[in-house]
Design a protein that fits this description.
The protein is of the alpha+beta class and about 120 residues long. Helix content is about 35%, strand content about 25%.
């Protein structure tokens, strides 16, 4: 059985609250789970102590049993010092898309045409 340490959503509409649970990877997000090992309340301020609460001893036990944390949970675990998360870098993500590059080139061409027209008008 493949185990995951993941988030299960709770709370009402537009007021999210998540439980950190140990679940079979095949079970649905908010479905059956084996154990609740923490919680995350994204509505609280980032510096609030109750924003992320984890039972690190139980999480460590489940990691030793082979449970794999999801990326978001791994962020919480690395902040708590339980697990190590390698920083990710995707420099391609910040680059503009094809249409945006075309618009930028079009604006540059218009600016160059206006500058050339202003120079010829000033020369006359």
């Amino acid at each position: 059985m493949a185990l995951k340490i993941r988030l299960a959503r709770g709370g009402s509409k537009k007021r999210p609250y998540y439980h950190v649970v140990i679940a079979d990877a095949r079970s649905p997000r908010d479905g059956r789970f084996l154990e609740k090992v923490g919680s995350w309340n994204p509505m609280l301020a980032k510096d609030d102590a109750k924003r992320v609460e984890l039972d690190t001893a139980r999480i460590q036990h489940w990691i030793e049993q082979g449970a794999q944390p999801t990326d978001r949970v791994l962020r919480f675990l690395s902040e708590a010092g339980v697990a190590k998360r390698d920083p990710r870098s995707n420099p391609e993500k910040a680059k503009p898309g094809k249409k945006a590059e075309e618009r930028i080139a079009e604006r540059a061409q218009k600016a160059a045409d206006l500058a050339a027209a202003a120079e010829t008008a000033a020369a006359e």
